[in-house]
Amino acid sequence: MSNKAQFSSIRQTLLDTLCQLGISEPVINQTVVLTSKGYFVGYRFPVESIQVVWLMAEGVVRFYAEDGSLLTTLEVGPGISTKKAA
């Protein structure tokens, strides 16, 4: 599966999970690129009161409540390879 197809598939899974968490019509309007020591490590998607964090190398997506508590975790498999940030 190409990176673009994988991203689209996981994005749809995120939207489905947000519905299960009580957001009736979730929309991802913002994508924050996460880096560590100059390397790309994942994305953060703020959606209403929930923060969705996708850590690529771990192949994990975590959903956090407004107070920072962990709501749920999804394993999405090996992530897209990390690269040095430009």
Describe this structure in words.
The protein has 86 residues and is of the alpha+beta class. The protein has one domain (3-75). 21% of the residues lie in helices and 36% in strands. It has one helix and five strands, in the order αβββββ. The protein has one helix spanning 3-20, and strands at 32-36, 39-47, 50-55, 60-64, 70-75. The chain has a five-stranded antiparallel beta sheet with strand order 1-2-3-4-5, with no helix packed on it. It is globular, with a radius of gyration of 13 Å. The model has no long low-confidence stretch (mean pLDDT 86).
User: How many extended strands?
Assistant: 5
N-C termini distance:
25 Å
Domain module tally: 1
Number of helical stretches of at least 4 residues: 1
* Shape label: globular
Instruction: Give the strand line-up of the largest sheet.
Output: 1-2-3-4-5
Helix content range: 10-25%
Give the overall pLDDT as a whole number: 86
Rg, Å, rounded = 13 Å
Structural class: alpha+beta
Structure keywords:
single chain, 86 residues, alpha+beta, 1 helix, 5 strands
Strand and helix layout:
Blueprint: H1 3-20, E1 32-36, E2 39-47, E3 50-55, E4 60-64, E5 70-75
Antiparallel strand pairs: 1-2, 2-3, 3-4, 4-5
Describe this structure in a few short sentences.
By secondary structure, this protein is of the alpha+beta class.
